[in-house]
Amino acid sequence: METKILNYTFKCNSDIDLTCASQSDDYIKIKIDINFGKKVKPEPIEISWFTPANGAFTCWSPLVFQDRKLRPNWGKLETESRSGHGMPIQCYIGSDDNNRASVYLSDVRTPITIRSGILEENGKIEWKLVLFSQLIGEISEYSTELVIDARQLPYNNIISEAVKCWSDKEGASDDKPEAAFDLLYSTWYSYHQRVTDAALIPELEAAAKLGMKTVIIDDGWQLETSARGYAYCGDWKAAKNKIPDLKSFSDKVHSLGMKVMLWFAVPFVGEFAEVRERFKDMYLNDLREGQMAYVLDPRYPETRKYLCDIYENAVREWDLDGLKLDFIDRFRLTDVSKTSHPDMDTESLQDAICTLLCEVNERLNAIKPGFLIEFRQGYVGPIMQKYGNMLRAEDCPQDSVKNRVAVINLRLTTEKAAVHSDMLMWEQYDTPEDAAEQIINVMFSVPQISVKINELSKNHYDMLEFYLKLWQSKRDTLMHGELYAKAPSANYSIVTAKDDDNLVSVLYSEKLFIADKDYECITLINGTGVLGLYVDGNNLNSSYSYDIYDCMGNVVQSGETGLVSIRYFDVPKSGVLIMNAKK
């Protein structure tokens, strides 16, 4: 079928209703309604149309990291979305950081895919929207709203409008515990599955001295071996040769002033788990070659109760303050689970995922209000933000640029969530300046530290201490201030957070900072990899005293400046310039 609405012609492989819900200059909202006439398991429905590219220079999507090239229509940019994965939005952006063409949907629950690419014949953007892009349960009708936005506003404004649309619809909570914003130590890169109480307690004593207030005990606490994989997941018993008395361990960590979080792979029941047979008819998948774990089907109340009981018992028995709930995006229907069963209390997998997380959230917060729950990038969309209060960047070991892009993507698509970096690690032979880049690139998130602190060289320790103190002193501005990330095409060349009195800016691939007005304190971090920064002070009226620090916290230069024009400062690689307005 073909439908014309204003200047757009929509083609669809099914009979659906498309109507204009609202419009203004360069903006249209379209209502999509589908009546199947009876309950069916819908096949994918494809809707395609074209928009002008309007000088698009780069593209943006929540799970696109460094690769922001414009794709051809035969190799389209693909964005997947469902309740437990992604967000349904794509943006085309000009070289001026203004929007050129953006598309997003109001529905963040149903499996949806957006694809787009440049048509060689005329330079237009070809869009394809796929509804029901993965198997879902039976439905008789469906509706959503499609927004096509060509207003040349700052790209982050368009993303903010989409986020507000989703938040208003899903009711995401703004009430995030302050502990979710505390510095954190993770055991993953530093210890992997070789976690033991004997090794960790001295390490956490050192972490506490550096201001870290939470530890995540990652994968390994439940395994007698240190072999990778998930073949033993599902029983969730403490390994006797790792941390046999988790309650005693938790008490020791609490005495350091730190909270304790424990890792769980939520959907997995391994092929060697004791409970494997108990749930043999309640899995979403069959084991295939190379796989080591089944995925529980949360549409069964028995599986949800089992998981909730496991977590509640762990929290009560071991006095835990939070959980790292991993692999939620692995819940998906397959050919072996596409039919319903009388023992299920819902046919919708997406609804079942939400029911599970809601039950977990309610039960654990009843034990400890403000309970910490970490989710990982991928499953950090508008619905997930109701159930998790710590949203971590996707795994990217030692990749500081991806970590930067990942956390900024998260900041742009959340409102008040505690965005966390992927765990930070570096090589022991790195220069302190190179090692500092791991922290510099995630300054606008909560850094998760995952190096063996007691084995650091003095230079590395001094660098870590300096940057963690700097982050803590600027935390309110960094995490709650107004954020602007320039040039997504350049992996965000300058990122700035500011409030009424403070401004913090990290210069990644540009050396010139342009001040917009006076602040009590301006902090500029040199993430360019080379010596020197320039400051354009034409908009400043105050005089400033300044100190320049190297990455280990040593003052290398001090002075005063009126900054009435562009001035050069000898800020070392990975160093910091702090300017304080003179009274």
From TrEMBL:
Keywords: Glycosidase, Hydrolase. GO terms for molecular function: alpha-galactosidase activity. It comes from the Bacteria. GO terms for biological process: carbohydrate catabolic process. It holds the Pfam family Melibiase. SUPFAM superfamilies: (Trans)glycosidases. The keyword Hydrolase applies. This is Alpha-galactosidase. It comes from Qingrenia yutianensis.
